[in-house]
């Protein structure tokens, strides 16, 4: 089994619902986003269009971040999900440099969303797992997946642009859609073998 995600760029409308759902699920501090959506423009005026490129962690089959981690804080699980252990992380940031997808972020401070106010109960609960001086990343909502649920970003996608499933099962929905539409991973030439595929618009 190897979990992966398919993102249909023809359907993505750049609403950032995935970003908000991810924040709610993981309780990330202010300034930390596991799910980013990049915006870019195609064509020429007056026929130009705004396009969107969601960029979660690619959960590479051959993750360069894991190779350079001197503390063993990065782990690739049997199901293909790549995680970062803040208890082991020494904050060297080698993984940030090694990742070609800008998927990792360094916590300089655990900042709350409302400055000069007491932390909310939600922040008090969620922020316990975030440590200043460590690196964090998207973990494909591994706890939800263990319960048989899709990642929060997939569950909340309003346009149905995201599909999650087993890349090694040829009969899974994700495998069929990748084959049907010729979906490709981002920057496959790097040899990282990403587990996130895109259907280009």
UniProtKB/TrEMBL annotation:
InterPro entries, per this entry?
4Fe4S_Fe-S-bd, 4Fe4S_Fe_S_CS, ET_IronSulfur_Cluster-Binding
Q: Does the keyword ATP-binding apply?
A: no
Question: What are the entry keywords?
Answer: 4Fe-4S, Iron, Iron-sulfur, Metal-binding
Q: Does the keyword Cell membrane apply?
A: no
Gene Ontology MF terms? 4 iron, 4 sulfur cluster binding; metal ion binding
4Fe-4S ferredoxin-type domain: which residues?
3-32, 48-79, 80-109
Question: What's one Pfam family the UniProt record gives for this protein?
Answer: Fer4_4
Protein name stated in the entry: 4Fe-4S dicluster domain-containing protein
């Amino acid at each position: 089994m190897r979990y992966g995600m398919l993102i249909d760029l023809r359907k993505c409308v750049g609403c950032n619902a995935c970003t908000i759902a991810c924040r709610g699920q993981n309780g990330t501090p202010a300034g930390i986003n596991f799910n980013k959506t990049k915006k870019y423009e195609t064509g020429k005026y007056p026929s130009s269009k705004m396009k969107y490129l969601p960029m979660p962690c690619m959960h590479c089959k051959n993750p360069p971040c894991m190779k350079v981690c001197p503390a063993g804080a990065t782990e690739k699980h049997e199901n293909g999900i790549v995680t970062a252990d803040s208890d082991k992380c020494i904050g060297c940031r080698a993984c940030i440099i090694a990742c070609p997808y800008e998927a990792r972020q360094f916590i300089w401070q655990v900042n709350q969303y409302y400055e000069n106010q007491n932390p909310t109960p939600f922040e008090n609960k969620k922020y316990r797992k975030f440590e200043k001086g460590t690196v964090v990343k998207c973990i494909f909502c591994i706890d939800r997946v263990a319960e048989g649920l899709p990642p929060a970003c997939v569950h909340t996608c309003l346009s149905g642009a995201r599909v999650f499933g087993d890349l090694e099962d040829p009969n899974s929905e994700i495998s069929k859609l990748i084959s049907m539409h010729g979906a490709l991973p981002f920057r496959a030439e790097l040899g990282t073998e990403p587990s996130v595929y895109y259907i280009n618009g």
